[in-house]
Design a protein that fits this description.
five-stranded antiparallel beta sheet; Lipocalin; 10% helix; 645 residues; globular; four-stranded antiparallel beta sheet; Thrombin, subunit H; mainly beta; 37 strands; single chain
Length: 645
């Protein structure tokens, strides 16, 4: 799946640990970092292949991000044979000390972000009817905020009240006046939702997952929060104090595995999706591709002990062939679970959607919707919707990797949580959107396919990429088609196309679908609009063109759908007609943040989407997805209120 191509943003390490280990290691010799980069990294990053970050992009990342990714993150397979000093040397070469070199992209913050402004008081957490306490909001993953604390008429009056800079922040969670957010820079924050001051911040918690906050007796304050980290560990904290309650054992031993999707909670269980970056590791000619299998693990909420783990690929691993380097290949592998699970209390099931296959060894576990029994982990049913979607990195250039499956699939896996929709006149339907641009309606009892609807052309970055949403009437589906847009921009600039794996003009935008029949109620194309990217991968092959792909998860309030685009615009659509009633460009200005960053730029809106709670709207701008279009290296969390009050 293409998320594995986002090599360094997703980090699999507690950065504080990495820093401590490196501090005890003798420094590498002068020039060693450049030599090692040229030997280990240049072939993929300078110039960048496919969707890997360029060297210029890496230069605007915090140095700790690079260390973490090479030490215990997605790039571990690429760092085989390197010691801690050599890893530090590569990071220092890519991101020199501020006094040694100017930023590759002026105006983009580098290194630690801002200074925490502590709140003067830390009042007890008090729930409200307007809370947004998990990524999907309800167990059905519908992202429908019925009590946002503002009306549809208020939305056109929204203005930025405060901003907060952080490295790679995920979707914020709000309970009462408390806001919780993780980020890849390693700090887990509890902020005041109204002002952005810091109640507490815990270091060494690199994560891109959305926190979960619940009332719980396991916490001294009566409130607990849970996150999944990229190094396959779930951690529980007292939400009031930030003190750790427990952490699980590592849930997966595969060195390329991670947690990218937010875990889900129901009653006394936590359901944790396991994904991987083995697609990236497979680019190495000597890598014995491939062995990872996506899974779902269930933990005891009180202790973090694992109850069961169910693998999406059930066929046995076996040798297949040797590659041109004489390395033994194997399979089947893949079927990563990237997205947050969906809970069905009525049937006592958890639904997950799976990624693509990494090898040509047959399996029915990839590109599938799977129903799993909560208490036992037994698979109730499995519905594969695409076959032959076998994909790893390095298969589209002039000299493809010897580990490429044959044939190479389109990388059309699932990355968006399924929605369990309650029909108005009884019954339910399970709805899933795929990167192919197809949306499926399934019977939750047996997985029977009821309807299929196309909303876009589809590509390796969507199609449907990060999420869908619904209210009581419709399901709302953003469509990206970013590869088509980048190809078109490159052609318009007289440049070679960056990718030829897809064709067509692309249909970025938002579609409303009747969940019962699958019929399209309306489609709203993403408008062509100006943007002001401070840092962006599309500069390399599309001249910095404003890319209007609509890949972020949306949110719904009564009467409106809120959805962002990669050119940095956030818009509110009339839920009945698709008419745009409000829009805001997050890149049209810079922000002086609560945590002391002057002139922080905005950027593309991608990833987990907006949060609405307590009369305010929160969104991340700068990038948190897979494309890095409009990415700055540093995100900015924007908090909107009516008239900015």
């Amino acid at each position: 799946m293409i998320r594995a191509r986002v090599w360094l943003p997703g980090i699999g390490l507690a950065i504080a640990c990495a820093g401590a280990c490196l501090a005890q290691t003798p420094a590498a010799a002068p020039g060693e970092g450049e030599r090692l980069f040229n030997a280990q990294c240049k072939s993929c990053h300078d110039p960048a292949i496919e969707h890997a970050p360029t060297r210029a992009e890496l230069a605007v990342r915090p140095r700790e991000d690079i260390v973490a990714a090479l030490t215990n993150g997605k790039m571990v397979p690429m760092a085989q044979g390197l010691n801690a000093a050599q890893i530090q040397a590569i990071a220092s070469f890519l991101v020199p000390p501020a006094s040694a070199a100017a930023p590759a992209r002026p105006g983009i913050p580098i290194g630690p972000v801002g200074n925490d402004k502590k709140c003067e008081t830390n009042p007890p957490i008090q729930a409200s009817s307007s809370d947004w306490s998990s990524m999907g909001l309800e167990t059905s993953s519908n992202r429908y905020q019925k009590h946002p604390g503002l009306s549809a008429r208020d939305v056109p009056r929204l203005k930025v009240k405060w901003a907060f800079a952080l490295a790679g922040g995920g979707q914020p969670i709000v309970v009462g006046d408390w806001l919780f957010t993780t980020n890849r820079g390693g700090k887990f924050y509890a902020l005041d939702a109204k002002t952005g001051c810091v109640h507490w911040a815990t270091d060494g918690v690199a994560s891109r997952t959305t926190p979960m906050v619940i009332r719980s007796s396991i916490s001294p304050s009566g409130w607990a929060t849970f996150i999944g980290t990229a190094n396959r560990i779930v951690r529980a904290f007292d939400a009031q104090s930030g003190k750790e309650i427990w952490h699980s054992d590592s849930l997966e031993s595969h060195r390329s595995s991670n947690i990218s999707g937010a875990p889900a909670i129901f009653e006394d269980q936590i359901f944790v999706p396991l994904s991987s970056g083995e697609e990236a590791a497979a680019i190495q000619k000597t890598y014995a591709c491939c062995t990872f299998r996506g899974s779902l693990a269930a933990l005891d909420l009180k202790t973090g002990q694992k109850q069961w783990q169910t693998y999406m690929i059930e066929e046995p691993l076996h040798p297949t062939h040797t590659n041109e380097q004489g390395v033994q290949m194997q399979g089947p592998a893949g079927a990563a679970v990237w997205a947050s699970p969906t809970v069905d209390p009525k049937r006592h099931l958890v639904y997950v959607v799976t990624g693509d296959s990494y090898t040509e060894a047959p399996t029915v576990g990839d590109d599938a919707v799977v129903a799993i029994e909560m208490k036992t982990g037994k698979v109730r049913w499995k519905r594969q919707v695409t076959t032959g979607d076998n994909f790893v990195m390095g298969c589209t250039g002039a000299t493809p990797s010897p580990n490429c499956p044959s044939p190479v699939g389109p990388d059309f896996d699932f990355g968006a949580s399924a929605i369990l929709f309650a029909r108005r006149f009884g019954g339910q339907i399970l709805i899933a959107g795929q990167k192919s641009g197809l949306v499926y309606g399934l019977d939750p009892d047996d997985g029977r396919l009821l309807w299929t609807t196309r909303v876009g052309e589809g590509s390796a970055l969507g199609g449907v990429e990060w999420g869908i949403a619904s209210d009581d009437k419709s399901v709302y589906v953003p469509n990206s088609d970013i590869i088509q847009l980048l190809n078109a921009a490159a052609v318009a600039m007289g440049k070679a196309q960056p990718g030829s794996e897809v064709a067509g003009a692309g249909k970025p935008g938002l579609t409303a679908i009747d969940p019962t029949t699958g019929k399209i109620r309306w489609q709203a194309p993403a408008p062509a609009a100006p943007c002001h990217y401070a840092g962006d991968r599309s500069r390399d092959y599309a001249g910095g063109a404003c890319i209007r792909a609509q890949s972020a998860a949306p949110a719904v309030i009564p009467g409106l759908v809120l959805s962002g685009t990669l050119d940095g615009w956030l818009r509110a659509y009339d839920a009945s007609t698709g008419k745009i009633v409000w829009e805001f460009s997050t890149t049209a200005q810079t922000y002086d943040t609560v945590n002391g960053v002057k002139g922080q730029p905005g950027g593309g809106i991608d990833g987990m989407g907006p949060t609405l709670a307590g009369g305010m709207l929160y969104t991340m701008s700068g990038f948190n997805g897979a494309s890095r279009t409009g990415g700055n290296g540093t995100n900015v969390l924007l908090a909107f209120s009516v008239d900015g009050r």
